C-alpha cells in the first residue's frame, strides 16, 4: 500500500494505492473535510490506507510513504501515557519510507484530488 497526502490552497486530500500480489493497482482519493497541514494529511493517508488494507482483509500489509512519518521524534513531552508506546513502535515498524520517485501514483492522486472542486 502506498499513501500520500497533499495540503495546499486548493484543498486537503489524500491518495492511496493498494497493490495486489498480482500487481493489480487499486487507486483511491479522499478529500478531507477539515483544514490541516501537509503532515496531518500524510498521517490521515497512512491511517486510512491501513484501515482500507484491513477492510480488504490484507493480513500483513506492506506500507510505503515518502514522508518522514516513520522517523522517531526525540521531543516527546507526555511520558505518563505508556499505553501509547506500542502504537509508536508499531508505526515505526509498519511504515516503510520510500523515495518520492517510487511513490508517484499516490502522490499524483493526492495532488490531482486537491485540484478538483467538490460541490
From TrEMBL:
The superkingdom of the source organism is Eukaryota
| Molecular function via GO | nucleic acid binding; RNA-DNA hybrid ribonuclease activity
Return the Pfam families for the record.
Answer: RVT_3
Q: Which residues form the RNase H type-1 domain?
A: 13-112
Alphabetized Gene3D superfamilies for the sequence: Ribonuclease H-like superfamily/Ribonuclease H
Coiled-coil parts of chain: none
Q: Can you say what this protein is called? A: RNase H type-1 domain-containing protein
* Native source organism of the sequence: Mucuna pruriens
For this protein's source organism, the top of the classification is: Eukaryota, Viridiplantae, Streptophyta, Embryophyta, Tracheophyta
Amino acid at each position: 500500500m502506498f499513501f500520500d497526502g497533499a495540503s495546499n490552497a486548493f484543498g486537503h486530500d489524500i491518495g492511496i494505492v493498494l497493490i495486489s500480489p498480482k500487481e493489480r493497482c487499486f487507486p483511491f482519493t479522499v478529500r478531507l473535510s477539515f483544514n490541516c497541514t501537509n503532515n496531518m494529511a500524510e498521517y490521515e493517508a497512512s491511517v486510512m490506507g491501513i484501515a482500507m488494507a484491513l477492510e480488504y482483509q490484507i493480513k500483513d500489509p506492506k506500507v510505503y510513504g515518502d514522508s518522514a512519518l516513520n522517523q522517531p521524534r526525540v521531543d516527546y513531552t507526555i511520558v505518563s501515557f505508556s499505553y501509547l508506546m506500542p502504537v509508536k513502535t508499531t508505526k515505526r515498524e509498519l511504515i516503510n519510507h520510500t523515495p518520492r520517485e517510487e511513490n508517484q501514483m499516490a502522490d499524483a492522486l493526492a495532488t490531482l484530488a486537491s485540484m478538483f472542486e467538490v460541490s
